[in-house]
Amino acid sequence: MIDLDITSLAEWSGAVDRPLVIAGPCSAETEHQVLASARALAELPVDYLRAGIWKARTRPNSFDGIGDEALAWLVRAGRETGLKTATEVATARHVEAALEAGLDLLWIGARTTANPFSVQEIADALRGSDVPVLVKNPVSPDLALWLGAIERVHAAGVRKLGVVHRGFSSADQTRFRNKPMWDLVIELRRMIPNIPILNDPSHISGRRDLIHGIAQRAMDLGLEGLMIEAHPDPDNAWSDAAQQVTPERLGEMLDYLAIRHESSDDVDFNTALERLRQEIDRVDADIVEVLSLRDRVVERIAECKSANNVTTLQVSRWNSLLEDRMAKAEELGLSRDYIKSLYEIIHQESIRRQSEIMSVLKDVPAVPS
Ligand code: PEP
Ligand code: MN
Question: How far apart (Å, rounded) are the C-alpha atoms in residues 40 and 84?
């Protein structure tokens, strides 16, 4: 666990018993577009108006943001509608300009979080200011890099601190622009239990039809807020057009979200849950028992193979085993992917154990696992 002194979200954002919502266009394009976004979003349960001013684009010669000029548009939109304002900062100069303009919240983008030099430069520029800062996850699924960025910003004295899960680049072809990794988010929650975690379903999905479902997943997990891209004319947005929604659609989505709580006072619910948890505990005890039985068979296989100088791995056996287990799982209503990942771990351990046992039998020095 990492012990950080963090101000609670309720204290600085006003979001109590509901998610904090940051919404607005991917990029500030024109003063009119920023004002039109703000006016429509101010009618919704939205706390902060977001807009990118300096955009880190993947390829040159794309629209890379309006720059400093747009700061005044955001400030004016905030003043006119009562919304607080937020933008992304990637350099110390961005921080200085945003603070000077009086923006209410800053976030560090995924590409920037990935670079400790940049994060340190930003943290140094934030020293002495009271502005809330959100650290988006780095592009790659590297929890240490994310934690390091959070620690750098915290060490600079920022206490109104939070993070945003915006998904991760992945070599696998997935339905997502940036694959959500809920396991990493849960691990972050375990490591720093008091840091507010927001979810950015827009950058995770890359497409507007998936935003609602991802936002609900985040609420199911008990995350504290959402950052969602909304634009008055999404199809003609200058960046990230496919993932932006109209303020109207955003309103419908927010209306429809089920907001969950970590626990309930309902006695019947608590009794039923306790009973089900005992059931799960018994099933889990059986699983561990069965895994140990399996391990004993693996030992005998290792002895057999060792005596006959046969390799630990037989690819065709592994393929047919996996296919068989996936098919069985499917018959029982489990997903093939779930059983595949599980068996990858089980099989990897079987191979490691066989090698370990075969080494002992042949008196080969052990390799640490
Ligand atoms: C953004 O919020 O517009 C943005 C560029 O996000 P990310 O850093 O998550 O890619
Ligand atoms: Mn964007």
Answer: 14
Phi, psi of 140 (to 5 degrees): -95, 150
CA of 109 to the centre of ligand 1 (A): 5
3-class state of residue 84 by DSSP: strand
Structural domains in the chain, sorted by start: 9-256 (3.20.20.70), 267-361 (1.20.59.10)
Long-range contacts of 271-278 (CB under 8 A, 24+ apart): none
User: Which residue among 166, 169, 238, 239 has the greatest number of ligand 1 atoms within 8 angstroms of its CB, and so is best to mutate?
Assistant: 166
CA distances from 262 to 82, 147, 217, 220, 222 (A): 31, 24, 14, 9, 7
pLDDT tens per residue, range 118-137: 999 999 999 999 999 999 99
The pLDDT value recorded for residue 17 is: 87
Q: State pLDDT tens for residues 288-340.
A: 999 999 999 999 999 999 999 999 999 999 999 999 999 999 999 999 999 99
CA–CA distances in Å: residue 16 to residues 7, 9, 47, 79, 134: 14, 8, 12, 23, 18
Taking the centre of ligand 1 as the mean of its atom positions, its distance from the CA of residue 166, in whole angstroms, is 8
